[in-house]
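The freezer alarm interrupted the setup, so I double-checked each line after restarting. Inputs confirmed:
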Amino acid sequence: MSAAQLASVFGLGALALYVLATAFYILNLLRPSAWAGRLATAAAALGAVLNFASLYARAVAVESVPYRDLLGSMKLFGFFLAALNVILELRHRDRSLGPFLMPAALVFMLVALLETPVPRAPSPEFKGSIFALHVTLNMVSYAAFAVACALSLLYLFAGRALKHRGRALAGPASRLPTLGYLERATRTSLAVGVVTLLVGLACGFIWASRIWGPQNLRWGLDPKVWVAVATLVFYVVILVRARTGAAPVTTARLCVAGFLLILISYTAVNLLVTRLHSFT
Amino acid sequence: MNLVFIGWNHRATPVEVRERIAFTPEKAREAMKHLFAQKILTEGAIVATCNRSEIYGLSEREDAADAVAAFLSSFHQVDGGVLRETAQSGGGEETVRHLYRVASGLDSMVLGEAQILGQIRAAYRLASEAGAARAVTNRLFQSALECGKRVRNETSLGARPTSVPGIALLLVGRVFEELAGRRVLVVGAGETAELTAELLVENGATDLRVCNRSEGRAAALARAIGGRAVPWESLVTAAAESDLIISATGASEPVIRAKAFAEARHRARRHGPLLILDLAVPRDVEPAVDELSDVYRYDVDALNEVAAENAAARRAEVPKAEAIVEEAVGKFRDWYGGLHHVDVVRALRGKLEGIRRQELEAYRGKIAVLGPDAEKVIDRLTDSIVSKILHHPTVGLKEGDASDRLERADAVRNLFRLDPPEKP
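Predicted 3D structure, all chains:
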């Protein structure tokens, strides 16, 4: 079996496990039971492993980072979401993020499997660690912002339930983490996202200077660069505000809005506007 | 012999009577000793809580419940007529059902309360240590504890608190990961404020401030709970800088106005959610603070509303809990019914007769060689052996008091692995 075929088989396996994980997480949210929770975690963890295996096989097949194209990067995004979900779950002994993160991982994986088995071979500039770091760190930052968005949605839901008196003490809202935890975890996710985006962008600048030379700044005119810098500034402002006393509800709303911007940047900007960052 | 209970609880017995027949562990031990010495009971246990004094046991007397009441009348020096009038009693299956319902929290003053299971465990331990728990009591109490646990695990009868302090703590738990390090402001220094503050300290609160019109009382309460007093003039600022506010003053109008509070909170730039538990009537905190984001205010009405909702949710679980109790009663009935002397002897004879026939069948070929006369002799011989083996157990199962007989019957059933009697 070729590396490209292996990538597809592992990808399908990961997809099936994400479907199972999503189903069990939602079942566990609505009717909590130990076995549903454990099965959800196991399926998510195993799915993430297969997702990684699929990415690795694809990297071997294309002889480059396996996420140069939109669909490949979606596969990476799905992996980060599933992996972060499992890490946060094991760390905090809490499964409330799963019903939100795993459906997203599932959708990204589903779309990713529409990819052609082997994209055309990359030109030499798409090889090398700086380029790989640039793409990988940017994807990590997107995943961190996705987690911040999911935590923020939970915060808004839990806060709303508390405002409506007893609702926070019964039903699904009573099984959510505390507001304090959601707020703190949102700030941590924001910080991780901001740092990785900053370093990822810096890697991109270094890589572009090497390819086109430090004098040629044509890459700086690419809309994707400006959108990425604007995204970074937006999230830095949210983070600074959150750390200096802004209302958590406002931070949560901004995190949700910020992630919508990222989705637009990730899809519409890459596909329709940018030339340098169009998926190869 | 009869499995009986007689008890005085919050349902039918006024507190003045309940407090006079309350049992300390020493008194319970002493009472059991007398009950056995006077042959009123042959085994049993006393369940004593703040709401009930109940005696469960096995007796050979038809009037066991009356005899226990008469004994307690002299033991506690209480009028026998009052005791008889206010008692709840029953026999046989009723006894089992009552204890199972008690263990499940179905008979508690606060439906589904959790402490009762621990109290029944303590009663059983006391009876075991005193040598008062024998076969039936062991089975009765062990199965009651199992039944109580099943109700707790399989229903949400006790899942949602129905008391104001319980709800307050649950709300705190929905907002904060832990109370340690959270800034708590106690407004007022009366009994409610003090009790709530103590509850918070017990649950991990470390950073407490007390604000009261009378600075002396604020300082006294602050000292008592390990906090610090805040001048009344700084109330709004202190409130804006807090994570949790407990307010219980006797003021006739709000002491924290929404507009001033919103301005102070803006100035304080304090991030994070704020929970306000306004336990005062009239309210201390203006309801308009609800408009502020991240501020969650619960007044007495809201807490009572939650308590009523939770109580209704508990009541909705009663049928499920009763079904578990009935299932457990059925199991006990099967076990207890199987200890009847005639049934045990019949089952034992059936078992031995089965073995005899099985062995005769196995050796039929070899016996047939000996001729028809020898066959009859061997049949009679083995039948006689079985009858002789059965003689002493049959007599032994009738000897001793009710508990002795049931203990032996249970032992015989276990040793010979006798199947439980068939259900009619």
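Quick read of the result. Chain B has a mean pLDDT of 89.
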